[in-house]
Amino acid sequence: MSSTRSLHSLNIENINPHVREAQYGVRGELAQRSEKYRAQLKKGHPPTPPEESLPFDQVISANIGNPQQLDQKPITFFRQVLSLVEYPPLLENEQVLRDSLGYKQDVIDRAKWLLGEVKSVGAYSASQGAPGIRESVARYIEKRDGYLSDAANIFLSAGASSGVNTLMNVICASPQTGILVPIPQYPLYTATLAVLNARLVPYYLEESKAWGTNLKTIKESYQKAKSEGADVRAIVVINPGNPTGASLSAEDVRSILDFAAEEKLVILADEVYQTNVFIGKFTSFKKGLRDLQKEVPGKYDNLEVASLNSISKGMVGECGHRGGYFELTGFDQKVAEQIYKFVSIMLCPPVIGQCLVEMAVNPPKEGDPSYPLYKKEYDAIAEGLRARANALYEQFEKMEGVDCQSPQGSMYLFPTIHLPQKAIEAAKKEGRKPDNFYCSHLLDATGICVVPGSDFGQKEGTLHFRTTFLAPGTEWVGKITEFHKEFMDEYRD
User: Fold this and answer.
1) Residue 113: is its pLDDT beyond 90?
2) What integer best gives the mean pLDDT of the chain?
3) Percent of the chain beyond pLDDT 90?
4) Which pLDDT score, from 0 to 100, does residue 277 have?
5) Which of 356-360, 383-387, 449-453, 468-472: highest mean pLDDT?
């Protein structure tokens, strides 16, 4: 048998096997196919042979929380300030800015202040982030929680994902290192653990209880992993939830803190959707910890919490500018020094993203010239998200074989789908999981890209998909309803 030697040094068999094994379905095969459809539509009709005409005229990327791709408008104050820090010569004629271009004085003042902190957005900053911007983040946290925050414990980052990567790299010391991760979960966590060759310790959320946490389930997962030799070091909590949209109560937050204190676990609190709460009130893990420390002095003093936030979500939605931060609470100083060393290897987070972080945590206040427009834009985005979430939920409630929890927060719904046996058998013939089969057919028929629940993890025997409710209008929702009816009729037992 002849064999041909590879012409390349690298091939799929000799690259890092942990990279090869990592999965990130949010931008996986269906997302890539949707981008091919988008490119095909841009070429216009009729299509160039051998391409066939598509049965839709636009692609709706409901697979990822990318607000501005789905026509969410940027906040005027943020973008006006950015225009000035990107091109400081505009500040040489403030009168033109004010009288001819509609820039308010607080826009000009903020741009000058930011330039004073970073000098130029084209220059590196301190590896931990610009000190003045970290001070603004600390003041925001103090106002939110009612407890002191030290800028020395705040690390600016290229979105929350960068912060997760940093913390996971520091925590995961060996293949035996285990991290408790909620299922369903955002695939960033499982993918990162795979790349680091560390161990996923899954704990399942309770769908029947609005995707809440179940402490008994968490403890069982922890004990099982320990009995199998895992060195379980941390627990990830996503609040509000992704992909579920669930918002944890203050009691849930306290119970997880109590468990982590008992077992000496680090809490990784992914709180990037903290302003996207429709039901109840957001409670940060930092506040929950400080409340417990106040009530029971001494017991929780050594509990470590790393809290993450981002400018990609909320009403800001500036995903492409890659800005975020994490705050360390209760960490050993020598560990914090190693975290600093790790982030310094990447030099610094994007400086323009740092500027946006500062504005997001310190927006115009009542009495400022830009406040009326800022509040109008912010409230319109918030109300639009709520209205679209409820409209999508109401449609799911009407669809055969679909069950969905009412919208609580974040940017997603995660409905259960009950598919006919014929559809499940057809999926098997195609080598697909049933929910992937459903989502694949949805994309091909409507141009709407959603993510199969199997890409997030789900209890055996259940099927789901995740969709954002970011896309404007309701016409696309009607397309899902129409597709679902036709799909169910086609595969009806």
Assistant:
1) yes
2) 89
3) 59
4) 86
5) 356-360
Conformation bin of residue 428: beta by default, left when phi > 0, alpha when psi is -120 to 50 = alpha
The pLDDT, as a whole number, for residue 1 is 43
Which of 76-90, 330-344, 467-481 comes out lowest in average pLDDT?
A: 467-481
How many Cα neighbours within 13 Å face the side chain of 230? 22
**Structure confidence by residue, pLDDT tens digits, 271-314:** 998 988 888 889 999 999 999 999 999 899 999 999 999 998 88
- Res 2: pLDDT: 43
Using CA of residue 268, residue 270, residue 274, residue 277, what is the dihedral sign? negative
CA distance 479 to 237: 34
Residue 206 phi, psi (nearest 5): -95, 105
Q: Is residue 245 a contact partner of residue 407, using CB atoms and an 8 Å limit?
A: yes
In the predicted structure, residue 123 carries a pLDDT above the cut 60: yes
**What is the spatial distance between Cα 439 and Cα 449, in angstroms, rounded to a whole number?**
7
Peptide bond into 364 cis (omega under 30): no
The secondary structure of the chain, three-state, reads CCCCCCCCCCCCCCCCHHHHHCCCHHHCHHHHHHHHHHHHHHHCCCCCCCCCCCCCCCCEECCCCCHHHHCCCCCHHHHHHHHHHHCHHHHHCHHHHHHCCCCCHHHHHHHHHHHHHHCCCCCCCCCCCCHHHHHHHHHHHHHHHCCCCCHHHEEEECHHHHHHHHHHHHHCCCCCEEEEEEECCCCHHHHHHHHCCCEEEEEECEHHHCCECCHHHHHHHHHHHHHCCCEEEEEEEECCCCCCCCCCCHHHHHHHHHHHHHHCCEEEEECCCCCCECCCCCCCHHHHHHHHHHHCCCCCCCCCEEEEEECCCCCCCCHHHCCEEEEEECCCHHHHHHHHHHHHHCCCCCHHHHHHHHHHHCCCCCCCCCHHHHHHHHHHHHHHHHHHHHHHHHHHHHCCCEECCCCCECCEECCEECCCHHHHHHHHHCCCCHHHHHHHHHHHHHCEECEEHHHCCCCCCCCEEEEECCCCCCHHHHHHHHHHHHHHHHCCC
pLDDT band of 25, cuts 50, 70, 90: low
CB 455 within 8 A of CB 64: no
